[in-house]
Amino acid sequence: MKKKGIIIFKALKLEGFYGLLSYLKPYQKGMTLSVISGTLHHLLAILGPALGAYLVGVAVGGGERSDIVTYLPLLGILVTGRVLMHYSDMWFAHEVAFRILVDFRVKLYAAIERVAPAYLLKQRSGELAATLMADTEVLEWFFAHTAGAFLVAVIVPFITLAILFQIHWALSLVLLPFIIILFSIPFWFKKEADRGGTETRVKLAAVHGEAIDGIQGLREIVSFNFGVGYKKRLRKFSDDLYESQLSYGKRMGLEGAFLNAVSSLGIVTILGFSAHLILLGEIERQWLPVIMILAANIFSPILEVTSMGRNFSIILAAAQRVAGVLETKEIVEDQGMKNLEGAEKLKIEFREVSFAYESDLPLVLNRASFQVNPGETVALVGESGVGKTTSINLLQRFWDVDGGKITINGIDIRDLSIDALRSLITVVPQDIYLFNMSIRDNIRLSNPNATHQEVEEAAKAAYIHEFIMSLPEGYDTNTGERGLQMSGGQRQRLAIARAFLKNSPILILDEALSSLDTENERLLQQSLNNLRKGRTTLIVAHRLSTFREADGLVVLQNGKVTEIGNHAALVEKRGYYFELITGQLSSIAV
Amino acid sequence: MNLYFRLFTFLKGARGQLALKISIGLFMMSTYVGQAFATAATMRRVFGGGSVDEIFPLLLVIAVLIVIRTFLFRIDEIYGKKIACHIKNRLRERLLMRLMDLGPGYQENYRSGNLQSVLIDGVESLEPFLTGYIPQLLVSLIGSGAVVIYIWTLDPIVGWITAGGLLIAVGAPQIGSNFFKRIILEYWQSYAKLNAQYIDGLQGMTTLKVFQASKIKGQELEAEAKDVYRRSMKSLGASLLDSAIVKWGAAAGAAFATAVGALRVTTGNLPPQHLFVILFLTVECFRPLNDLNRLWHQSFLGFAAARGIFNLLDEPLIVEERNDSTSIAIEASLPELTFKEVSFAYSGGKRPAVKNVSFHIKSGEKVAFVGKSGSGKSTIVQLIMRFFDPQSGSILLNGEDIREYSFEDLRDKIAVVFQDTYLFYGTVSENLRVANPKATQEELERAAQLAGAHEFIAELPQGYDTVIGERGIRLSGGQKQRLSIARAFLKDAPLLILDEATSNVDALSEEKIQHALEHLMKNKTTILIAHRLSTIQSADRIFVMDDQELKEEGNHQELLFKKGFYAQLIKAQHE
């Protein structure tokens, strides 16, 4: 059965949908109710007018007043019943839709959690998150308003054909080809529709990108008097979009015209044919209005679905992206059982570590070995792209090493549970992510049970308390609110406050590239010095002052550790490190 | 003006096209009506016991009408796209130009995310209303109205019933619109909010994982999602009523018009041949209403967005250009600049930024502003560029108040290298030409060479034709900054402002940049906003800002000797 299903979808070049349908299983009940009400809605929508048409036939055929009056209550019931069924169809369809939205969000969150940050890094930015959420909405649209409607569009014409069959068998035979042709029309245009659809979306995205450029580059545009030039650019992109929308519209128009023509021709044909049958005496003439109304309505559920067919390519693309994330395997497996609870003095060791981000990419780290003794601060030094950040990513097990191993107190970090490992480590990143919630909750992220007093103490130790108190709402200020502009230094000190609150024995510090103003710089240094006390610290360093203060320096060059020692010793050596810093000295005064 | 009616003003310039679309719609409707008449006539003949020869011409007429409609259908669809695209392009352009007039000062108060959603999603969401609902409404009113009147002439009672159904179907949503609009918007908004929260969580996932908070956050979000789901279902019940009433009006109108027509035939009040016409015409009468109802619902999101769009259009200008500003030629070889007791606060006076600042920069001088962040240094740049106007005091360029200059003249004379540079989506050349659209390729390359950027540009896959920006190749902070400097070289303005120009770059690129900057400063009046000692020391004069005020001025030696703020700052840096 399953195989058969796939074959049908493949034959229609819609195999992408087959995968989607499996997600519908948990919603069977709601879907069934929606399809039943949808079917009844459409049937009643046909039966009401059909009864009206029948009454016309009766009246013209010389019927009595009473013949008609008795049917009026039934007509009222049919009309009202139809509306009620419409209501319940929409209700259940949305019920399923909204539940799907909830479930898919939860599923996506779990999937991203499993594969982050590797996946996020590969996709470059948080735009991915926005795309995925938008895709989820598209899927909702498919599940709630397309899948069920499709079934209805198959069932209702069938029943209508059966009724026509009762009137005269030949009628349904005449109509059937028109129904089949109607269903097939979207497939004639599918290729062209897919191409045009993709092109329009690309062009639209370009116009939107241009608008975003205008908003974000506003200062540049204004200060270079580039307004006219910008307008010209915008026009160019808009005109492009216009062209592509136009050709898309032409295709849509043609498709719609065919749909309209085929369904109308079906009606004329049935009119001519049944007139012929009546004149031959095969059918009684009062059935003619009924036949006409049935024929006119048989196409409407089909037309409803075929017009949706135009969006199939959008749905499929969205489904592919979502499925891509849901089915991505995790990069590191959490199979370790050990933990290092209670251990305070921790020693980190990189032993002959080799690593590449993809098997066909060059090695980022090539048999790199170094160690950080308990309580020591070691700085990783080297040009950008040399593997410093990779080293700290590996230590946190965002990826696993390809060769060699990383140990903490002699235990391979892969033998630790990920939870145990992460509870040992605190990271102060270069660019801290602040969530759309209060400053207090942002700090408390590292320790949800911390009391307000503890939060404040951490903020004080990070020298950020004063700044927070200067805000009108203090610790309750939402960091996502407009107007709250925090400098890089202030944001980093918030990260430090988080780190204080977590209070773990290993500290990883990714030093910011941008130098801060002197005041911020001093506060930052002081708070970092407080934080480092007693902790085993690994720093990705950019600044001379950090180099000087570190207990040891690990100099990386092309993925290899080329020099190890403290600042004084390495300067003495006059090697690569010396070259590196003399290049900097002329401009760094800190 | 009422929001609803004000939306119609967006149609300006497209009214002719819109009228054409409405005419096509009416034309299409009349082919349907024609078909209804022909069908009714066919039926009458069948009931009259006519022959096939009598019916055949009528069928032919219907076929011709179908062919005509097919063509109309195609034109209508194309036209719809055309108008939608045209209106949206114009509106987007208008809003962006408005934003340009408001200037960067406007963004101090608004998050760019909000602006983006107004300019992109907002404009898109107006489409159903402007190019769907409005023309369809007119087609329905004129077309269906005419059909109702015709039915009324056949039989007043049937006419009234049809009119009643029509009135319910068109009117009910309008009467209840505020109620339904509120409900529908509420749940759209709560979903949008939830979406934003999920995006927030996903973007911060690394942070969450590092602090082992991802599970808790996930549970929180799930609970919230379920809550939103429950609330949505509650309000859905109410909002579905809207379309149910419309459906009922249309269905009951058509069904009872026919049935009552049949009744009146049996009582002899209506000639039977008219009944066939009524049977098919009532179908046509309610045909446009289905689309109308769908479009009305789709329009709601646009109504919400309209508010943001109107806010942007109505926002008073932050700085206004004088109408009679004439171009003032700069006579002196290099400009001089004076601040006279300038005070300024952001957010309409709520957030003080500079207080009573006065200074004079001589022609060709190189001065530096130093101070903590928030001390007001960067505000000085924004005031000189006229992103804002001071609340009191005046700023003079070559002795003339800068408000006397046209924006173009003023900004032509100033080149700024900002701390963070924005690169547009486009090639390197296009990005450089922002500073001077007429520059030749040689001039571009020369500027890039002077800025120390030529080397890395040459190494890019397509050299100067490499596409950069958000959607292109990303450059490092140092590379971006060198492009920014190249822009300044290209612009070659006599007044140069370096606003913390070297703060976002790593130490290695900094050296190259410093070198390029020194070159750039030659033969210019230069203002440095700086915090690095090396850049400050070489300045002719240093202004020290603290607490929004100008506290000290003098050269490096003098200020050190003074043992004031400056000496403290320097000391802090050495600690």
Automatic annotation (TrEMBL), chain A:
The domain of life is: Bacteria
TM spans, by residue? Answer: 33-56, 68-85, 141-163, 169-189, 257-280, 286-303
Q: Does the keyword ATP-binding apply?
A: yes
| Pfam families registered for this protein in UniProt | ABC_membrane, ABC_tran
Q: For this UniProt entry, what is the primary localization, expressed as one broad class? A: membrane
Kindly indicate whether the keyword Transport belongs to this entry. yes
Gene3D superfamilies cross-referenced by the UniProt entry: ABC transporter type 1, transmembrane domain, P-loop containing nucleotide triphosphate hydrolases
Report membrane topology: Multi-pass membrane protein
Query: Where's the ABC transporter domain?
Result: 348-583
- The residues covered by the ABC transmembrane type-1 domain are 33-312
Alphabetically list the UniProt keywords.
ATP-binding, Membrane, Nucleotide-binding, Transmembrane, Transmembrane helix, Transport
Subcellular location, record wording? Cell membrane
UniProt-listed PROSITE patterns? ABC_TM1F (PS50929), ABC_TRANSPORTER_1 (PS00211), ABC_TRANSPORTER_2 (PS50893)
Q: Which GO terms describe its molecular function?
A: ABC-type oligopeptide transporter activity; ATP binding; ATP hydrolysis activity
Q: Would you name any one GO CC term?
A: plasma membrane
Q: Could you tell me what this protein is called?
A: ATP-binding cassette, subfamily B
From TrEMBL, chain B:
Q: Kindly give the Gene3D superfamilies that the UniProt entry links to this protein.
A: ABC transporter type 1, transmembrane domain, P-loop containing nucleotide triphosphate hydrolases
Keyword set, alphabetical order: ATP-binding, Membrane, Nucleotide-binding, Transmembrane, Transmembrane helix, Transport
The keyword Membrane is annotated on this UniProt entry: yes
What are the subcellular locations of this protein? Cell membrane
Chief place of localization: membrane
GO cellular component terms, alphabetically, are:
plasma membrane
Where's the ABC transmembrane type-1 domain? Answer: 22-298
Pfam families recorded: ABC_membrane (PF00664), ABC_tran (PF00005)
As one GO molecular function, the record gives: ATPase-coupled lipid transmembrane transporter activity
InterPro entries xref list: AAA+_ATPase, ABC1_TM_dom, ABC1_TM_sf, ABC_transporter-like_ATP-bd, ABC_transporter-like_CS, P-loop_NTPase, Type_1_exporter
PROSITE patterns per UniProt = ABC_TM1F (PS50929), ABC_TRANSPORTER_1 (PS00211), ABC_TRANSPORTER_2 (PS50893)
What are the top taxonomic ranks of the organism? Bacteria, Bacillati, Bacillota, Clostridia, Peptostreptococcales
Q: Any transmembrane segments, and where? A: 20-43, 55-72, 133-152, 158-180
Question: Could you tell me what this protein is called?
Answer: ABC-type multidrug transport system, ATPase and permease component
Limits of the ABC transporter domain: 337-572
Membrane topology is: Multi-pass membrane protein
Is Transport one of the keywords UniProt gives this record?
Answer: yes
Per the record, the domain of life is: Bacteria
